[in-house]
Design brief:
single chain; mainly alpha; 15 helices; 8 strands
Length: 474
């Protein structure tokens, strides 16, 4: 897939919030001219392969998305005497927009991906009918729109109220930074548009291109439209949950909508009735160390450890304790010390380099639905979904009703912490959404701990915007 990178400018932030900002000069890759009128079946395969590779780069080529977000969420430490910013810009202060902690790698890869998707979507109608049928075009559009929505949502996960850019179709047009509420609404609408594409395509249609094994080999084949609908509804339910939890502009009815969408993603299973045997099914990224690809699992790092509080907070009998293993030797620095690490981060186990990482799995969908039930006031159904997960790991079910909404939130956050440990920024998103990144709920990890809760837009973006800053969102 040909790439040409224009001047990078897709957002600006030097403050905790943003107003919709009109300055942008986005990334361009590939151009519409390279796609329009020449979109053969084989060319589409090449282009989609490029998009998928760029999407995986968020997980496999950057420490920002998982490691830095999990450090900020206080699940992981990364203690490196030669690189203090893993501590000083997460647990010992705010991230510097000019450093890698400003998120440039994730920012760049995400917007390159989104620009490529836009170009393919614009070129899709020009493909000859002898190359792609009407239903195949609709299926392709649905897959690409879903992928684009997820890519933008990842930016919101990291930046929260800082704002993100919604790229338009024209690479020569300056696009605005928009605040979280508008960005989530756009992601939700894009997912719904993709779902309409899938309806047009029909559930029996297959994508006219191959996908990597992580999207076909973990209990679900996402080349089939019927399964892509479930994937799409899972993401829509996740987005609608956090629209309901939006501090600035919570969306009325979004939690109930999330329950409906997540139930659809779970194949219609009632609360507490999702088989534990399906918990690990879903969409994953595989990693292949060595050779020409050389993309090992980024979590494998001798300097990564588990925050001791994560180990200490495990309930007796929880078999997820197997995710926490001893380090070969204690690591210390910058006021932090740990003797344990995440099992798949252990650098002495070479097979960890090829361990897959889930993007969205059934177990997360069950717990997201529990959160959505809590927001609708249905604590009974929330308890059923929470019990569905906890009993799978050797813990006793909650047999009495939760005493309060807060108690239900405590329960679901416990399950999510250990079920999704080191799989993404879910913990950061949750403790931030529930207003728990503060001294009431957390200890200070360092003397300079300011309870940072998100990452800035890169300095290169600010420079491209000529230093303009954005006032707080209303």
């Amino acid at each position: 897939m040909k790439k040409s990178i224009a001047a990078l400018a897709t957002g600006v932030i030097l403050v905790a919030g943003c107003a919709d900002n009109p300055i942008t000069n986005p990334v361009d890759s590939p151009t519409v001219g390279q796609v329009s009128g020449a979109l053969t079946r084989s060319a589409l395969q090449t282009l989609v392969t490029g998009v998928v590779a760029q999407d995986r780069a968020t997980y496999g080529s950057s420490t920002n998305y998982i490691i830095l977000s999990e450090v900020m969420a206080r699940d992981l430490y990364r203690i490196d005497a030669s690189e203090m910013r893993y501590v000083t810009e997460t647990l010992g202060g705010n991230p510097d927009p000019g450093s890698f902690a400003g998120g440039a790698t994730v920012w760049n890869s995400s917007y390159v991906e989104q620009r490529a998707i836009s170009a393919i979507l614009l070129g899709l109608p020009g493909a000859a009918s002898t190359e792609l049928s009407t239903t195949e075009r609709a299926a392709t559009s649905g897959f690409l729109r879903t992928t684009k929505a997820v890519s933008l949502y990842r930016q919101i996960e990291l930046r929260d109220t800082v704002g993100v850019v919604i790229q338009g179709d024209n690479p020569n047009t300056v696009d605005p930074i928009v605040c979280k509420t508008k960005a989530l609404a756009y992601v939700a609408a894009l997912l719904d548009s993709a779902n309409t594409d899938f309806t047009t395509a029909g559930g029996t249609t297959a994508l006219p291109f191959k996908l990597p094994g992580g999207l076909t080999g973990y209990g679900v084949d996402y080349t089939k439209v019927s399964n892509l609908v479930l994937y799409n509804r899972g993401w829509k339910g996740k987005v609608d949950l956090y629209r309901a939890l939006d501090h600035q502009s919570p969306v009325a009815g979004a939690a109930a909508q999330a329950v409906t969408e997540l139930t659809a993603a779970l194949g219609g299973a009632a609360a507490g009735a999702v088989p534990a045997s399906t918990f690990a099914t879903g969409a994953y990224w595989n990693f292949v160390p060595g050779g020409t690809e050389n993309t090992p699992n980024i979590l494998v790092d001798a300097k990564v450890g588990i925050n001791p509080l994560v180990k200490d907070s495990l309930q007796a009998g929880d078999t997820r304790a197997s995710k926490i293993v001893p380090l070969p030797s204690t690591i210390s620095g910058f006021g932090l010390t740990t003797s344990f690490t995440y099992v798949n981060a252990l650098a002495t186990v070479s097979s960890n380099l090829s361990k897959p990482i889930p993007m969205l799995k059934t177990e997360e969908l069950v717990l997201l639905r529990a959160q959505a039930y809590i927001e609708t006031g249905d604590l009974t159904s929330a308890r059923a979904d929470i019990n569905d997960v906890r009993t799978n790991y050797g813990l006793a079910a909650y047999t009495t009703p939760f005493a309060s909404k807060s108690a239900a939130i405590d329960a679901v956050l416990y399950e999510k912490r250990y079920s999704l440990l080191a799989e993404g920024p879910q913990r950061l998103v949750d403790v931030r959404a529930y207003g728990r990144i503060n001294s009431t709920f957390m200890r200070k990890e360092t003397t300079n701990d300011v309870f940072a809760s998100g990452f800035p837009i890169p300095k290169g973006e600010a420079d491209a915007r000529q230093g303009q800053t954005a006032p707080s969102c209303s």
